[in-house]
Write a structure and sequence with these properties.
single chain; globular; alpha/beta; seven-stranded mixed β-sheet; Rossmann fold; 40% helix; binds S-adenosylmethionine; 2 domains; 8 helices
């Protein structure tokens, strides 16, 4: 039986290099690792901090005949010795940033696929502060909501990014930009600089 992913996880999975050592952090049901194995991935680790998701991951692996996946109980990447492509999806941006910043096996070939549910701006700031850069971003929409999927790499060069980069990153999709503008409008009630940024971006893009 073939694994079917929703648009959000599919957008993440399509960025993964199948010939690399892959780690899905916070795997929960392990649908994405099973999908990757069915596509030809040779080396896949699926980790989660909680026992319940790891049990559910085991069931999914049996259901789809993907027993070769290595299951690890781990807070973030703490118990993972090495991986080249790391996926961290479906968590808050601050948690994803913390997990990535603790990675101990970074190299020029390291790639990360990050899909924050909230606080994408904090994730982008944390990435650049810790020596990562964003290669590209794409939007994935599910049930009327849209999320950004960030494809990043490690450069070792740290930087502070401006507010516009933090809130919009490299995502040029109109639906995502409008979502971030609405967020800035909401934040602008207590923080005038958010309103100024939203107005500036609207003028620049003619929205
Ligand atoms: C909402 S689920 C997302 C599942 C899947 N990645 C997805 O995007 O559909 C979040 C998962 O992350 C796990 N998690 C939360 N904090 C974690 C941490 N610090 N390290 C590893 N896993 C964590 C939870 O146990 C849960 O299974």
């Amino acid at each position: 039986m073939r694994v079917r992913l929703d648009e959000r996880l599919l957008a993440c999975g399509e960025l993964v290099r199948l010939d690399k050592i892959i780690c899905d952090v916070g795997t929960d049901h392990a649908l994405l690792p099973c999908w990757l194995v069915q596509r030809g991935a040779k080396s896949v680790i699926a980790c989660d901090i909680n026992d319940g998701p790891l049990l559910s991951a085991r069931e999914t692996m049996e259901q789809y005949g993907c027993e070769g996946i290595t299951l690890v109980k781990s807070d973030g990447l703490r118990n993972i010795p090495f991986a080249e492509d790391v996926i961290i999806a479906g968590m808050g941006g601050e948690l994803i940033g913390r997990i990535l910043s603790e990675c101990t096996f970074l190299s020029e070939d390291f790639r990360c696929i990050l899909q924050p549910m909230t606080k994408a701006e904090e994730l982008r700031r944390s990435m650049y502060r810790n020596g990562f850069e964003i290669i590209s971003e794409r939007t994935a929409g599910v049930h009327g909501k849209c999320y950004t999927v960030i494809y990043g790499r490690y450069t070792g060069e740290t930087a502070e990014i401006d507010d516009e980069t933090a809130f919009f990153g490299k995502n040029t999709d109109r639906a995502y930009i409008e979502k971030q503008l609405a967020l800035l409008d909401k934040m602008g009630n207590g923080n005038p600089s958010c309103r100024v940024l939203a107005d500036r971006v609207r003028r620049k893009l003619n929205y």
